[in-house]
Amino acid sequence: MDFWFAIVMIVLVGSMTGVLKSYFDHKKGGEVSEKALSELQMRIDAQDERIKNLETIIFELEKERRFDTLNN
């Protein structure tokens, strides 16, 4: 084996391992973000439902308040 051929092979193997490592790290990070995204979506849906319930309660109270002033 020639000296320069050995150097080129070492550089290629080192570069390929770096590329593969970054590829797998990026792929792994994508899976985690999908899980986090679905978790956040569930929390947002729950908050939306709570807001709808609070709006309903407030609107009902506003309706009653209008009629409370008529009795006085």
Helix content bin: over 70%
Rg calculated over all Cα atoms: 31 Å
- How many E strands? 0
The backbone outline, from C-alpha atoms, is: rod-shaped
Counting DSSP H or I runs of 4 or more residues, the number of helices is 1
Overall mean confidence score, pLDDT: 82
Overall structural class, as computed from helix and strand content, comes to mainly alpha
What share of the residues does DSSP label as strand, in percent?
under 5%
Major sheet characteristics: none
N-to-C series of helices and strands:
H
Which regions have little confidence, pLDDT < 50, spanning 5+ residues?
Answer: none
Distance between the termini: 105 Å
Structure description:
By secondary structure, this protein is an all-alpha fold. Helix content is 96%, strand content 0%. The longest helix has 69 residues, at 3-71. The chain is rod-shaped, with a radius of gyration of 31 Å.
List the helices and strands and how they pair.
Elements lengths: L2 H69 L1
The gist of it:
By secondary structure, the protein is mainly alpha-helical. 96% of the residues lie in helices and 0% in strands.
Summary tags:
single chain, 72 residues, mainly alpha, 1 helix, 0% strand, rod-shaped
